[in-house]
Amino acid sequence: MIDINAFAMLRQFVGGRGHYWSALRGTLSPKEEAALGSSGPPFTESPVVTRDPLRLTPEDEKMLDALAEDGRASLVDLATAADLTPGRVSRRLDALLQHRVVHIDVEIAAAALGYHARANLWLRVHPSAAKSAGRALAQEPEVAFAAAISGPWNIHAVAHCRDLDELFEFTSDRIGSLTGLQSMEVSPVLKHVKQAGTRLFDDRLVEPSSARARR
Prior knowledge:
This protein is of the alpha+beta class. The chain has 2 domains: 8-49 and 105-215, Alpha-Beta Plaits (2-Layer Sandwich); 50-98, Orthogonal Bundle (Arc Repressor Mutant, subunit A). It contains 7 helices and 8 strands; from the N terminus they run βαβαααβαββαβββα. It has a 6-stranded antiparallel β-sheet with strand order 2-1-4-5-3-6. Strands 7-8 form a two-stranded antiparallel ribbon.
């Protein structure tokens, strides 16, 4: 390790479930979308933390441990793990989701769908334009994540393009014309090893060892 920079995420404009990425609209059938839980409202701009945060209880910890082991665990499975009724588990999960203590994230292998150029975009925009720039980024099909952050770059975004030429066109023509943009750094990802919770190998998601062990 030679150097490291850490920034705080202040406001999230888009991100979370993979099927909220607008570039993939129409890829799945309505039935497949419903299976991923997309019947609810799409991701909307939100603060990183709520004003009245919930405190995790011992039962919450047991539920989350069970979900970490198997993201498809049923309410009955979670109730057994937490020694609660399925009804109480359902209500508690709803509360945790609403207060952003827990969020649902569907991870995809973008390269397997033809998006081979992933890049981190670090934008410096005028403070008065930070919110409008973040909201504009959230509407771009190539942008899978965008947030306001602390530090010298006040907007961070993750873009997926089909190749480097498309990335160049996207960043120079559309991102470059954002109102209030002062400077930008484009950092292409050379090798994507791990996403939020899933490793990748040869542009494919690697099945977690816990899932293989259950077979």
